[in-house]
Design a protein that fits this description.
The chain is of the alpha/beta class. It has a six-stranded mixed β-sheet. It has a six-stranded mixed β-sheet with strand order 10-15-14-13-11-12, with helices on both faces. A hairpin with a 4-residue loop joins strand 24 and strand 25. Helix 3 crosses helix 12 and helix 5 packs parallel to helix 7. The chain is globular, with a radius of gyration of 25 Å. The N terminus is likely disordered.
């Protein structure tokens, strides 16, 4: 029998040790002793697809008053529920770089989840990381950098679990595209999986995530959900994961091998036709015949029960009711994340913020809500009207939808501004809307989602990085008819903007991302300067799709790019991006001064006990860096200061890697210190020979700036 590894309180960057696994395991062991073998099998086996109230269900165990467990999508709210909000997708909250908003979003989503009686909300998402800019589900996660993903995972999980809802870190691991996701193998080297793809899952485990979902793909030739290296070695042993591993829906391929490799729960318990039942009675037989040890079944049950008790779900948890009205006042977070995730890319001649123009011309189908209805497409599987999220299982129904044209019209009426609208993507109807307008605003989009839905010939992954619906031609037509053009982009990820930037009359580009149901309201907040834009790109926008060096592949993916994904590649190969990772303009200006690097970390491997997240000393703060930031402009604004680490040459790492960020809100003329707590893990590389995280000896360069390429202050650190 496995003895649980208990959390120890360390000086770590999060309040991870407030949940008590030891007490949860004590309760789980007491309950385990009262369960029949049949009860145990039922706790680890889903009841089958479409055979319960939720997308995933397990049977109740009356002997321990354990309920029918309800597992429900998804990462931005409760799917298939009628009285909930649709929160912004992960990629939008990532673009805010705001820890408080990340945590509050997790909390508010969980309050709605709990109000619906759902025990496990299937999110957040750290996989895909987003190595392929066209990957269909990148928008569900938090951007193309493992550190940013990791912070967002931890904040979201801690926000969710503070309410008593089990979070689920997914999709574990290396599911970076939709094409052939259920047949392909992701083949990767040991260092790359540790330093990029496993990194944010370590943050999730350190935040005491209750559950992890294994993915559809194979890893180095073995299915993720029966891969002992991924499930047992990496997750349970190296990261000290105390919770349970469930399959993605119908991602199981075996009875005994999945059990002995570290799988703890099968979902939904069958395939989508009610067949392919690998556990249930088959698992019972495998235990009876000795193929699966009884101790392994007991460990599965113990882990599931411990997570249930860890979150206090054994006391006063609401009954399952997906019709409950649980919206509360949570739309405040949706508007704030939608607004603060908007990235201002270009603002020539300070055309923004708008100053009560006489006439505005609005162009594009994405200016108005889907004429068939905001929730008319199953799982948001269309790109018709204004865009708020991608498509697939990671969606929720909009409670309402603020479209750009409606929100702008409301503001225009108050200002006495005349509005003309062409809510089509036809270039021929542009003239009448924009000819005599002081300013023209054109709306373009790019969409993606999960591969079970095809939208305009995009089978989950995007076919290319161009704007949809002839967006380039639409902008060209508007720019030929009006001298002051603002382009608003709603997109799941990078779009090649070269054609648009080549139009001299395009004066501003507002990257509005995926703002969910507060689309228009959030945009008006920024366009009119009620709030100064403070979003920063959570990925690189290239000049050409080829510059990324990665793409969706047919067959297996050998991850030949290694560590060089997104800005790591652009820096390493000296490729000039169009807009770099971490970039974003403001309506004010910020200066950086007085970097101070304080701390004396030493080289060598981490040696601490294993706690949730890995060796305990990896989570110790070894360096504190401060920089003074001053708002030198005339309006209030917020700046995201970003810290990048360049390692000693011997480490053979990308030129610089994000290892800290701090967002400061400053009044005009005010200054404050941005502070960065650097953990031992932030200075470590994975040593494949030692099989440990090691801090290399030598000179580290510490850079702080407004983006990955706009470095304002630098310091050095000598590590003996």
């Amino acid at each position: 029998m496995r003895s649980p590894i208990f959390a120890v309180a360390f000086a770590t960057a999060s309040a991870a040790a407030t949940l008590d696994w030891e007490a949860a395991y004590t309760k789980a062991n007491a309950s385990l002793a009262k369960l029949s073998q049949n009860d145990k099998i039922n706790i680890v086996t889903g009841v089958g697809w479409n055979k319960g109230p939720c997308v995933g269900n397990t049977a109740a165990a009356s002997s321990i008053s354990y309920p029918q467990l309800c597992l429900q999508d998804g990462p931005l709210g409760v799917r298939y529920a009628s009285g909930v909000n649709a929160f912004v997708p992960g990629i939008q909250v990532a673009a805010t770089w705001d820890r408080g908003l990340m945590r509050e979003r997790g909390q508010f989503m969980a309050e709605e989840t709990k109000g619906c009686g759902v025990h496990v909300l299937l999110g957040p998402v750290a996989g895909p990381l987003g190595k392929n800019p066209a990957g269909g589900r990148n928008w569900e996660g938090f951007g193309a950098d493992p550190y940013l993903q990791g912070i967002a995972m931890a904040e979201t999980i801690e926000g969710m679990q503070s309410v008593g809802v089990q979070a689920n870190a997914k999709h574990y691991i290396l599911n970076e595209q939709e094409l052939n996701r259920e047949t392909m193998s992701s083949n990767i080297d040991d260092r790359t999986i540790h330093e990029l793809y496993l990194w944010p899952f370590a943050d999730a485990v350190h935040a005491n995530v209750a559950s992890v979902m294994c993915s559809y793909n194979k890893i180095n030739g073995t299915w993720a959900c029966e891969n002992p290296y991924a499930l047992d070695t990496l997750l349970k042993k190296q990261l000290g994961f105390q919770g349970y591993v469930m399959t993605d829906w119908n991602a199981q391929h075996s009875t005994a091998q999945s059990a002995t490799s570290g799988l703890d729960m099968t979902m939904p318990g069958s395939d989508f036709n009610g067949g392919s039942i690998f556990w249930g009675s088959k698992l019972s037989q495998a235990v009876s015949s000795g193929q699966v040890p009884q101790s392994r079944l007991d460990d599965m049950v113990r882990r599931i029960l411990a997570s249930f008790y860890l979150l206090g779900q054994d006391s006063g948890y609401p009954a399952i009711n997906l019709k409950a009205n649980v919206q509360g006042t949570h739309k405040t977070n949706i508007r704030a994340t939608a607004r603060d995730g908007i990235v201002l890319l270009k603002n020539e001649g300070n055309i923004l913020p708008l100053k009560k123009p006489g006439k505005l011309g609005l162009v594009g189908s994405a200016a108005v809500v889907n004429p068939q209805g905001m929730n008319s497409c199953t799982d948001q599987g269309c790109n018709t009207g204004a865009l708020g999220m991608g498509w697939g299982s990671g969606t929720a129904s909009y409670a309402y939808f603020s479209a750009p044209a409606d929100a702008i019209r409301t503001r225009a009426q108050a200002d006495g501004t005349q509005i003309s609208l062409s809510s089509s993507d036809s270039t021929s109807s542009v003239g009448s809307a924009v000819n005599d307008a002081d300013i023209a605003i054109v709306f373009i989009t790019s969409d993606s989602g999960e591969g079970y839905i095809t939208v305009e010939n995009n089978v989950g992954d995007r076919n290319n990085l161009d704007p949809w619906h002839n967006g380039n031609d639409l902008v060209k037509a508007v720019a030929a008819a009006n001298k002051n053009v603002i382009v608003v982009v709603h997109s799941v990820g990078p779009v090649i903007l070269e054609t648009i930037l080549a139009q001299p009359n395009v004066k501003a580009i507002v990257w509005a991302g995926l703002p969910s149901q507060e689309n228009g309201n959030a945009l008006v907040d920024i366009l009119y300067g009620d709030t100064s834009p403070s979003g920063k790109l959570p990925y690189t926008i290239a000049k050409s799709a080829n510059d990324y060096g990665t793409g969706v592949v047919r067959g297996n993916d050998d991850f030949k790019e290694g560590l060089y994904v997104d800005y790591r590649r652009f820096d390493h190969e000296n490729i000039e991006p169009r807009y770099e990772f971490g970039y974003g303009l403001s309506y004010t200006n910020f200066t950086y001064s007085d970097i101070f690097v304080d701390g004396r970390p030493t080289s060598g491997p981490a040696t601490g006990d294993i706690i949730p997240g890995g060796r305990a000393d990896l989570w110790e703060i070894v360096l504190r860096v401060t920089v003074t930031i001053k708002n030198t402009g005339t309006v209030k604004g917020a700046e995201v200061a970003q810290l990048y680490v360049s390692y000693p040459e011997s480490a053979a790492t990308p030129p610089k890697q994000l290892r800290g960020f701090d967002k400061l809100v400053l009044e005009p003329g005010a200054s404050d210190n941005a502070a960065f707590d650097i953990l031992r893990r932030d200075l470590s590389v994975w040593d494949t020979a030692k099989q440990e995280w090691v801090v290399p000896a030598g000179t580290f360069n510490i850079s702080v700036g407004a983006s990955s390429r706009d470095i304002r202050q630098s310091g050095t650190l000598e590590v003996p």
